[in-house]
Amino acid sequence: MIKALVIVPYEGLLEMMKDISQEIEDIELHIELGNLYEGVAIAKNAENEGYHVVISRGGTASMIQEAVSIPVIDIQVSGYDVLRILTLVKGFSGKAAIVGFSNITQGAATICKLLDLDVKTLTITRDNEVKEKLTALKKQGYGVVIGDVITMQAAKQLGMTGVLITSGKEAIMDALEETRRSYRLFSRLQQDIALMQTILDSNEQAIGVFNQAAEMTYGNARFHSDFHWLQLDDATDVKKLMQETILTNTKQVKTLYINNELWKITTCPINGEAALFFEKAHSNQTTVQSEHGKQNAIELHTPPSRTPISGKSQATQKVLDQINRYGKRDEPVWISGEQGNGKELVAHSIYLKRKASDELLITLHCDMISAEQLKELMKEGFFQKYANGVIFLKHIDNLNAYMQKELLSVLQDENEQKPQWLVSSTDNMDKKIKNGDFHRALYQLLARSQIQIPPLRERREDIEDLVHVFISDLHPKYGNEVVGIRDDALEQLVHYDWPGNVAQLKHVMEQLFLEAQSYYIEKAEVDIVFKRLEHQARWNDALSYIDISGTLEEIEKEVIAKVLEDEGMNQSRAAKRLGINRSTLWRKLK
């Protein structure tokens, strides 16, 4: 039996529904009188009271649809209903107009056009628009207004003739048939949802769905158990991953350190939201927390992104050739170069040449992991556990002497199966080995094959390709209208020395992309960004000479003096830059 709550806006419809309820056997009708907000108030408790559907009419039905989660059936105004009223209105003298919500006016307007009737039709979206519309009609000489209950009531208040479009039996019977169809569909949908909910709650993965505002819209039982405390505003890494997934509309996989545990997170875009799947990355996770807190000492990629290496210079072509050759071997590869020059991208490219997409690439951040953490990883057999994968030792030259010896013992152990190794460092390894800062035997084992990436200033012919690649990559992220760069603007970029290499160029291109005022990045916009870079370089250089061995007050005075010098001894500008007033600045300099 279908249990339906019927909310009708006028007495006549209530009586007609009562009569019809005696004729049907498969629908239990509970009929209430209520118009607009009264009807919404009645409907809000319908689902809790066990009703399967709500049946109403006109503007009341439209408003109820926004307030409840069960199906709402609208008793449509039929052509018969409109024809009856228009026939009635023919006998009135003066101009007539139809005013109401779209589910009243749409059909009426069509019939008026078909019959070539001079009846004005006005559609409202909110109930408080009716009085304003009718007042304007009255000034235009209209005396008769046709519509729903709210239109009729407002017309009477203004001294106009209000004519109610009533619903006939055929419209009610159509609504009841729609009730049967909706109930069947909704019941099947609820059964499917219940089944899916059971499956999701049985899943060992924690699954959460979040909208663009970082609000959770769904969580399975495991999620509520393991992550009931999670607020994305506090978990910035998770929030960023979720927002990138929605923005780029692409699946992503990342390993993050959350609440003292390392989790592999897979994100999938779903209709403007993101579904996050959490699973623990490996057994003993408490040993890999980053001392920096914001990044993980270990990252697991399955697989890393397939970002192509761009550039037409001879140096870049040599690197690409080396990637192809070393990608066919299992031996270690040592990748060196200045900071920001794409060493990690080269490592990812070699991995993708060697491994299937379901095998792990593990990045070990040697500049972040502590000796205790490395010792614990070795104790649990971490390197043997992932012997089928590839381990990328990023910034290996940051390992201290103890950790270098521990790693060397892993490489020299012939009894254990070991992963494939990829390594990155700065360019000055010969000097470090000569000075005793890096273990010669470890270097010799890992540097059998080497790739040296020249700085960007030594391969300027790559810059044009990189600029266009970055513009292309930024489109799905920000979606503005930039399609290229002017020749004179590109020439400026080519002649800049880029101390931060490709990473710095990418950052500058993102600024130019966001600040561009037309389809093309202009020279003047490059000038502005370069001035900021120059200013920042001067400021960094100035700060490097500040003596931090003194007291906080002494350091503060040095900083203020540097800012004053940078601002040409202008105290107003210096105070504004420091975020203090002039009197405070003067007092601190005393």
Characterise the protein shown here:
- Residues 309-514 form the Sigma-54 factor interaction domain.
- Keywords: ATP-binding, Nucleotide-binding, Transcription, Transcription regulation.
- It comes from Oceanobacillus profundus.
- By secondary structure, the protein is α/β, with parallel strands linked by helices.
- It has six domains: 2-75 and 171-187, Rossmann fold, CATH 3.40.50; 79-166, Rossmann fold (3-Layer(aba) Sandwich); 203-280, PAS domain (Beta-Lactamase, 2-Layer Sandwich), CATH 3.30.450; 301-454, Rossmann fold, CATH 3.40.50; 457-543, Helicase, Ruva Protein, domain 3 (Orthogonal Bundle); 546-589, Homeodomain-like (Arc Repressor Mutant, subunit A), CATH 1.10.10.60.
- 47% of the residues lie in helices and 19% in strands.
- The chain contains 24 helices and 21 strands.
- The strands form five sheets. A six-stranded mixed beta sheet has the order 14-16-17-18-15-19, with helices on one face. A five-stranded antiparallel beta sheet has the order 10-9-13-12-11.
- Helix 21 (523-543) runs antiparallel to helix 22 (552-566).
